[in-house]
Amino acid sequence: MSQKMTGAQAVLESLKREGVDVVFGLPGGVLLPLYDAIYQSDIRHILVRHEQGAAHMADGYARATGKVGVCIATSGPGATNLVTGIANAYMDSVPMVAITGQVNTWLIGKDAFQEADITGITLPITKHNYLLRSAKDITRVFREAFYIARTGRPGPVLIDLPRDVTVDEVEFTWPQVDLPGYRPSVKAHEMQIKKAAKALMEAERPVIYVGGGVKYAAAHGELIELATKINAPVTTTLMGIGCFPEDHPLSLGMLGMHGTKYANYAIQESDLILAIGARFDDRVTGKISSFAPRAKIVHIDVDPAEVGKNVRVDIPVVGDAKNALQGLLKEVSPKGRSVWNEKTEAWKKEYPLRYIPNDNVIKPQYVIEKLCEIAPDAIITTEVGQNQMWAAQFFVHKDPQKFISSGGLGTMGYGFPAAIGAKIGRPECDVIDVAGDGSFLMNSQELATAVVNEIPVKVAVLNNGCLGMVRQWQELFFEKRYSATILGRTSPDFVKLAEAYGAVGLRASKPSEVESVIRTAMATDRPVVMDFIVNPAEKVSPMVPAGATLGEILDLEWCDDAQSCHLEKIYAKGRKDILGQEGF
Amino acid sequence: MKHTIAVIVENKAGVLTRIAGLFSRRSFNIDSLSVGATENPDYSRMTITVQGDRDVLEQVIKQLSKLINVIRVSELDPSESIERELAIIKVNADKESRSEIMQIVNIFRAKIIDVSHRSMIIEVTGDEEKIDAIVQLLRQFGIKEIARTGKVSMVRGARVVKA
Asked: CB–CB of A305 and B163 under 8 A?
């Protein structure tokens, strides 16, 4: 069956066939024909107030649902405003299709009004991108784009759509995907699985180290099965949070720079690391040459280029996490509890995540604990910095699609639009953005989007009056010279800000007010901004200083004299590393 | 260490940019790159010489393979393959020096493809060392201009690098 239609209509029909029910965007001159087709289509369009918001919403939607998120921006500034959001999705392997308008094909290269070479600009931050030059290519390109975005290691694909291409008439066809240069390796090699299983069986001190790959492969069920079958403790990266329930006895929580002490100790003591869908990021490994010094490393990853990129791998397994885990489950036999389990459990008891409670000043960690108590099943999105680390540490995460955070790129301003996207994808869930006063302002204009579209997301601003994570580093490594990190009273009144947009604003200034503010917010079926005035001096702890090994992880508030002396040395070393080559 | 790789790519706009961009973004060093058509009009073949140890080479191959427009990447072992480069060299040549230059050209089995009162253009084909050697010898006459193609390479025997 073929049918004549305009290019714009072919775009909408392609989106529909790919199962898209919502797109996030903002129109512009060259997009007039496309937006005219959107007007006549039943695909839901969420109008954002800044294109960066559209990209992050598509990203949050994708992470919460597992589907491909779609964002749309006009040519020139619209397209360049997407760039941070696309880079963010690329670093965290999020399936996304970004559609940008482009000037008429005959004007390309002439520096036309609102022209930008967006395929050139996004070359290094997309899995692939396209500049369409003919309406007859629309359906093929859209089909390929969605296929590339969601298969293998997922990632963003950009389609640049010149205005005339959307106006031209075309016969609609729906071709098969034929990409000779793209064959993602999904099935793990049997020999390698056998080798990995043997290593797991022989290991006395195994640790399973889990990244976002397990989430994207929806392999958390298999992961839990494997870990319990062989009694191996499990630690997750920031991206892997929720893949293994944190209330499980084998859970070691998060590892790395602000991970738990017990996860980091376990890695350093381990004789076998089973890495699944993780990429040995510098925030995870600490000083890379001393990472897991006694361990054999098995690395399962769907992207062959990740294997051997940062660390030497003893047993590489290229394949989809679910497929590999199913293979491993068949090969391993049950293992009972061991001395190693006792050891990691003893560390968990001895070195819990903790903070010094206070009756007069709100501790940010306390806010997170209360959120977890009142809304344990909520989707948590985060901004970036201290708020992100506390949300990772003090909320008990159990579901991989319910912790949404900018890991690789570390984008401040991500959490709020991501929360809106997540809520649209999963309207049945409560969605809370854990924010800081610095990062919330980076995309707070999307309050308008939330209000107009009646998307009842909640924002918990941990308002410490500073750019907290950088301030923390200045305190520790730059002799408390707080260069450009103190916001103080220069931030707006967040309650009034919320109200100005037609949202609800609530404030807690004392610990006793925290619970009632959260309960009121959760009971309100409208967008709510909660302003928690928290202790400005609070630091994220524990911490592995830059250039240190994971074993050198420190409590920043809880130390006796001997430790604080050690702390001084580490600070001095940290200063050297920062000013030297390793850096922040 | 130098490595030679053959890359079969789709013959489409922007593919060279993708490859060059990948090398600069990942800090890989290209020594030489040459591109040309293949027996199949849909595909082009690149020969790329890269600097680096085994780990770098492995990353180069894996990262190149991830590009959607890249069909095949293959390392060419120098002991099992032939390598050729073409250079054209414009050199000062007058009555006195012309015959001496022609002798050098003969020894290298090169060709003179243009002559004027004051210059000659010489065409030479061979591996990198051979071209370096003739350039070295011609230097005494004064080289006015050199254009080199960069290396192309192919495995000896029946084995092929094909899409």
From this structure: no
